[in-house]
Amino acid sequence: MASIADKVFMGSLILMMVAVVVSGVGFQFINWKSQVNNELEEETKTSSNRKKSVMDRQDKSLKRIGRSYLFWIAVAGMLISIGLSYL
Fold this sequence. Notes:
Shape: elongated
Oligomer: single chain
Order of helices and strands: HHHH
Strand content: under 5%
Structural class: mainly alpha
C-alpha cells in the first residue's frame, strides 16, 4: 500500500509542477525582464511603480493557478496518497 501511495504522490507532484508552468507561471521567466521594461517605459520609472507592476503580474499568475483544474486534481491526489499511507 505504501508503494502505491508513493507513486500517487509522485504523479500528483509532477502534475502540480506541470499545472504551475502551464496555467500560472508559464514561460514568463524567459522574457520577464523585457516585459517589465516595456511596461515601465509607459509609466514613470519610480521604484514603487516597478514594484507594483511586478506584484500585479505575480497576483495574476497566482489567480490562474488557483483556477486551474490540474492544480486541484494534483492537490486531491496528494491528499489521497497521504490517506493511503496511513492504511
